[in-house]
Design a protein that fits this description.
126 residues, mainly beta, seven-stranded mixed sheet, four-stranded antiparallel sheet
Length: 126
């Protein structure tokens, strides 16, 4: 099973940017559907973005379209989430997730993903 480690979170002012990284080890990263989810205090974990194994297809939640960008580098076993124009409502713990199947069905559901990172905190001040 793949292990995932996120990094890049922090405290930023509204309108700022962050780049989150998720390094994978122990699996065949280039075959995985990769996703980012977030969870704010008192709320359920929600889908943010996903990218298929070849980077041909990316998917975004409506709340982040135009501000977030997911990408991956299969040579580095790493997936990224570029977050621009941050808003206070983006404050959450951001989780990286991996699914060991090439199709993108149900990419927005937590149950699709079999491996999760420990999360990285993003805090946006107003």
């Amino acid at each position: 099973q793949v292990q995932l480690v996120e990094s890049g979170g922090g405290l930023v002012q509204a309108g700022g940017s962050l780049r989150l990284s998720c390094a994978a080890s122990g699996g065949t990263f280039s075959s995985y559907l990769m996703g980012w989810f977030r969870q704010a205090p008192g709320k359920e974990r929600e889908f943010v973005a996903a990218i298929n194994y070849s980077s041909d297809n990316t998917y975004y939640a409506d709340a982040v379209k135009g501000r977030f960008a997911i990408s991956r580098d299969n040579a580095k076993n790493t997936v990224y989430l570029q977050i621009d124009s941050l808003k206070p409502e983006d404050t959450a713990v951001y989780y990286c997730a991996a699914s060991p199947f090439r199709d993108s069905n149900l990419y927005y559901t937590t149950t699709r993903y079999k491996s999760w990172g420990q999360g990285t905190q993003v805090t946006v001040s107003s």
